[in-house]
Write a structure and sequence with these properties.
The structure holds 3 protein chains of 3 kinds. Chain A is about 70% helix and about 0% strand. Chain A contains 7 helices and 2 strands, in the order H-E-E-H-H-H-H-H-H. In chain A, strands 1-2 form a two-stranded antiparallel sheet. Chain A is globular, with a radius of gyration of 16 Å. In chain B, a hairpin with a 2-residue loop joins strand 4 and strand 5. Chain B is globular. By secondary structure, chain B is an alpha/beta fold. In chain B, the strands form 2 sheets. In chain B, strands 6-7-8-3-9-10 form a 6-stranded mixed β-sheet, with helices on both faces. Chain B has a 4-stranded antiparallel β-sheet with strand order 2-1-4-5, covered by helices on one side. The longest helix of chain C has 30 residues. Chain C folds into 2 domains: about 110 residues, no CATH class; about 60 residues, no CATH class. Chain C is about 70% helix and about 0% strand. The chains are: A mainly alpha, B alpha/beta, C mainly alpha. Chains B and C meet through helix 2 and helix 3 of B and helix 7 and helix 8 of C.
Chain lengths: ~180, ~240, ~210
């Protein structure tokens, strides 16, 4: 009981910390903020339910007025901006990512987690994001989908990196991978 | 009040960490010494009721601390080696008040009791301070005040001085010397427990010596120095 | 941790946070239901008036939080300029600005403790479904406590990277950050159990 709760809380804090550290470089020297990777990691490491709860807890703190989103943004404004659909999709993205890692046990872990992150962290999250944009900007879903395609390659790389990170974590701390516990 | 250990054995992750430890601790100041990995931190957690032994019994005042956590809150407090692993709350007052509300005090009572302990240590101005911003020594003192506020009869401290500079260590030690509760101090450094009433020496999860400091510490120091001149770092476990 | 609450004390700080949130929800829905540029323009002016009543410093803070909208406003201007649907573009832009400014005003004038109290209140009905509101409060406090520490872990790892590499730290420091966070979670769970665990009304403390 205490363990589940502290893991959920510490992961919510980790998602915040990933947005607050200076940006990191990807494979090709492109700077990224690692925060959205934290959402994929939450699902992949903690599993569907706990991962989604960690993300919900993080979102609650943003709503309460803490500047925890990358770039120091936060507050209730984070829920009514044109990009808020993405943000609102986070818990579902973490849940789906976690569910796939929990259920799909064949094949190399890195690959499973990368695929799960693509489905949860890209397909599901963009689904929410595009609907949100379409409402805020009063454009069709297809038009909004076109607007966000530029961000997909970066997120694909993040999904692959999430796979590598979780695989390394499983090697150094096998017990830490609750999604496979 | 006494800590009773009867044939205590603990396995963690399939490894035997403690073997048949028996001792009845009634003295006000108890030191437990040993090397890294000797099982002394595990024993600290057993005494505090955080680990249930898989063999034998560990009791304080006749009560099983691992089974009866409510009784444990009144009987025993524990201070861990790294205060960052212990401090749960963002502000000092919340950190101290938490344990008190857990003991059943109302919110206001808990706050008042927390203020009282801060005042007793001359740290009333810490009340609203962010725990994150405290220095390492200040954090350790906060952990001490947090546990003292709950008035346990026994306080277990696991290497409370590691990483502290000499003045800070001296100040914390001075605070400790005026505590009424029974103190069980776990350390690798014989200097820290020289004036104590009784010393337990653990090695490889076994109790190798138990007696007054004069009888145990010189032998302990000699053995540590002998080992220090050798090279047992070369051995890999498992 | 520093919240986005404005240090400039305005009259709106004294209103109960619950009422502000209820008003915000109602007004935001209304904004999305109307298509009349006149009504939306009036709403934006009214919100601007709210900021003005907080004084120049408060107004400047408020405007700074709106900066994130400029790429979208530019996009709308280009799009609707090209298609000639000026009125539709104006409606969208006014709505975006008003909704965000209104949400920000509530955040800027509500203290963290008041917001936590509202959240606890909102979660109370879920108690029947087995949600432990006490655990939620504890978890919120823990995130506030550990976010600076985990950020510091990240900075230290980045520094240790830079001490050995000419390049900017890469994603590789994320793995140890996660591992450290999970280790901390286990230690903190132990510390929490040492002080009675999550619930007051529980007898056995076993997991």
């Amino acid at each position: 009981m205490e363990h589940n709760m502290t893991r959920i809380a510490l992961f919510a804090a980790l998602i915040a910390a990933l947005g607050l550290i200076p940006s990191l470089t990807l494979a090709f020297g492109v700077p990224i903020t690692a925060q959205s990777m934290g959402v994929m990691l939450a699902g992949a490491v903690l599993g569907a339910k706990r991962g989604a709860l960690a993300v919900l807890l993080f979102m609650a703190l943003v709503a309460l007025g803490l500047p925890l989103l990358a770039g120091g943004r936060g507050g209730l404004g984070a829920f009514v901006a044109p990009t808020s659909g993405f943000f609102l999709g986070w818990p579902v993205a973490a849940f789906v990512t976690g569910l796939i890692v929990e259920r799909w046990r064949k094949g190399p872990l890195a690959l499973t987690v990368a695929m799960a992150s693509i489905i949860g962290g890209i397909v599901v999250m963009y689904g929410f994001g595009i609907v949100g944009m379409s409402i805020a900007l009063d454009k069709t879903l297809a038009e909004c989908a076109l607007l966000v395609t530029a961000f997909i390659p970066g997120d694909l790389i993040k999904a692959v990196l999430t796979g590598l990170i979780v695989q390394a974590l499983a090697r150094s701390r096998p017990a830490a991978l609750l999604s496979r516990g | 009040m006494s800590v009773d250990l009867r044939d205590v054995g603990v396995s963690l992750d399939g490894q035997r960490v403690l073997h048949a430890i028996s001792a009845s601790l009634t003295e006000p100041r108890i030191g437990i010494v040993g090397r890294n990995g000797s099982g002394k931190s595990t024993l600290a957690r057993v005494i505090a009721g955080l680990i249930e032994p898989d063999q034998g019994q560990a009791r304080i005042g006749g009560q099983d601390m691992a089974r009866d956590r409510r009784a444990a809150l009144a009987a025993v407090g524990i201070i861990f080696q790294n205060p960052d692993h212990q401090i749960i709350f963002p502000t000092v007052i919340e950190e101290i008040a938490f344990g008190l509300t857990q003991q059943g005090l109302g919110r206001d009572e808990a706050q008042n009791a927390a203020r009282a302990i801060l005042a007793r240590f001359g740290k009333a101005h810490w009340e609203a301070a962010a725990t994150y911003a405290l220095s390492q020594g200040q954090k350790q003192l906060l952990c001490l005040m947090t546990v003292l506020a709950m008035r346990p009869r026994t306080i277990v401290m696991d290497e409370p001085f590691s990483g502290l500079d000499i003045p800070t260590r001296m100040q914390i030690a001075r605070h400790l010397s005026c505590i009424d509760a029974q103190l069980v101090l776990i350390t690798h450094d014989p200097e820290q427990v020289r004036g104590f009433d009784r010393i337990l020496w653990l090695d490889g999860g076994r109790l190798v010596a138990d007696g007054p400091p004069d009888a145990v510490l010189p032998a302990f120091r000699q053995r540590m120095e002998d080992w220090g001149n050798g090279d047992d770092l070369a051995h890999l476990a498992g | 941790m520093i919240s986005l609450t404005s240090p400039v004390e305005t009259w709106a700080h004294r209103l109960p946070a619950g009422i502000k949130l209820a008003a915000l929800s109602g007004l935001t829905v209304t904004l999305f239901l109307t298509d009349r540029p006149g009504a939306l323009g009036a709403a934006l002016l009214a919100v601007f008036g709210l900021y003005l009543s907080g004084g120049p410093v408060f107004l400047r803070q408020g405007l700074r939080h709106l900066r994130m909208l400029w790429p979208f406003l530019l996009l709308i201007a280009l799009w609707h300029g090209a298609t000639g649907q000026w009125q539709a573009g104006l409606v969208i832009a006014l709505r975006l600005l008003t909704a965000l400014a209104l949400a920000n005003v509530v955040t800027m004038t509500s203290r963290l403790t008041d917001m936590i109290a509202v959240l606890t209140c909102l979660l109370a009905p879920l108690r029947g479904m087995g949600l432990q509101t006490r655990a939620v409060e504890l978890a919120i406090a823990m995130v506030l406590r550990f976010t600076p520490m985990l950020t510091e872990n990240g900075r230290r790892l980045a520094m240790s990277w830079r001490a050995r590499s000419p390049r900017r730290p890469s994603w590789r420091i994320v793995m140890p950050m996660v591992a450290l966070a999970l280790d901390d979670a286990d230690h903190v769970a132990e510390a929490l159990r040492a002080r009675g665990g999550i619930l007051n009304d529980r007898d056995a403390g076993k997991d």
